[in-house]
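Can anyone check this?
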Amino acid sequence: MDRITRIAVVSLGLLLAVPGPAFADGLDSIPYGDNCWGSGTDADRDGLNDDCEYQVAFWFMPLFWFDSGESGYGRRPYYAVKSTSFSTRTLQIFYMDTFFDDTGVTTGHDGDPEFQLLEVHYSGGRWYLDWAYLSAHRKSICDSSAWYSSSQLEYDTASDSRNAYRGWPTLYVAEDKHATYNNLTTCDNGCAYQDYCSRYAYQYLDTSSRLVSRNVGSTAVQLINQVTLNGATEWLLDDVAFTGWDNQWYRPNSEGYRRHLNDFGF
């Protein structure tokens, strides 16, 4: 079954497996290694092959667990990739979730720019996840964002044999607020104990386009910035509000992605 379309209510036993010797670490499904650097087309002029950027972003795309009370699934995700070290063959992938809205009862707003930053490297024919930065109300009064090592994350291994420990991560999405966490306990402690997660339904970050044609490039070399959807326009890379292509008069908007992209050098 295609990993993008497997959207269902499942039990923990079906989806998650504790890493062990039965699984080889990392991913061997990405058709690039050393040739990710300095080969092929490079539209954003960062030294990386454009298709390699896509393949790495696609294969490491996280899987989300949503709570049973979630009322704001809608999103249109984008991504950016940059090289941090050629000598260690290390990349960072910035996943822009671009949820259409935050549906929290008392603090809801149009546009919800949560994100994940994964650091991966290539070695010996396989790609490995090393670190993940998970945004959780970043730059707000209850900022619970954090870096997690690969050993602090969970992985979808039982339902897809192509994945393994240090492959694509399984993350937990706070009900209606979309902060992401590495496990249920961390989530329930998030935002001064106001966040809540459970294992109800799971979806990959992008359930439809597989991130095809969603590479934004960077703030310096913009491949995608202005996006019009249903008659509304967002500027994903500019220092402007992100309204989730909605901008209702009775709800506040969120600040956009530019400040986060700047902080992480994208």
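Reply from J.R.: I decoded it. The chain has one domain: 12-219.
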